[in-house]
Amino acid sequence: MPIRLLTAALIISFVPTSLSAAGFYLGAGIGPEVEAGVFRRELERFAEADGGTWKLFGGVELGRHWALEAATLELGDQRCCGGNVADLGFTSLVGGYSLAALGRWPVGHFVPFLKVGLLFWGEDGEFVTLVGTSPRLADGTDLLLGAGLEVQLSARFGIRAEWERYEFDGATSDSVTASLVVRFRRSEPVAPVPAVASFQPNHFPGSQRPCA
């Protein structure tokens, strides 16, 4: 619990008093399947994932070096078969929402970043036995860590490669995704051009000479 509270306080501290100069972005990413959730631990040696990973995310850039990002994600189907005839296994679907703060270090068109936040996850599962099926539900809020690299193709478009680590009540899972990022930057106000006084020699002392 202290880690979760500290992470939440860290994220909130990045929100500025004014977002007038902030840039907004949206993105979508896909990746390979991830072994995730809590039910797989009951039959861990038979568990496998299927269906791949996807996520949709959006964020606000708080200057050059910070961003606040929210995402919705799905980590694919979790399946396994039991070790005996009375236990046929289970299936489940793991997904959730995340809120994270990003620290970024732009170098030209390359933007490496680190991420820390919270994952609000849920798992909808079903155990199958010879006597029937038993639905199982689980959810929680746990730590999320990540790192990645974004390549800015233009002022609006970029591509991102990212690694994230999720926790599920003590069980950890790693995810790797490739994403497309689209930016919607607010236009900066144009400063007025200062007026340039016309050059008039007669305005300078000594510029007037008596006529001969």
What does the overall shape look like? elongated
Total discrete domains: 1
CATH architecture: Beta Barrel
CATH topology: Porin
Q: What labels describe this entry?
A:
6% helix, eight-stranded antiparallel β-barrel, mainly beta, 1 helix, 212 residues, Porin, disordered N terminus
Topology:
Elements: H1 2-13, E1 23-31, E2 47-50, E3 53-61, E4 66-80, E5 87-104, E6 110-129, E7 132-152, E8 157-168, E9 171-185
Antiparallel strand pairs: 1-3, 1-9, 2-4, 3-4, 4-5, 5-6, 6-7, 7-8, 8-9
Give an overview in words.
With 212 residues, this protein is mainly beta. The chain has one domain (2-202): Porin (Beta Barrel), CATH 2.40.160.20. It contains one helix and nine strands; from the N terminus they run H-E-E-E-E-E-E-E-E-E. An eight-stranded antiparallel barrel has the order 1-3-4-5-6-7-8-9. Strand 3 (53-61) and strand 4 (66-80) form a beta hairpin. The protein starts with a helix and ends in a 27-residue tail after the last strand.
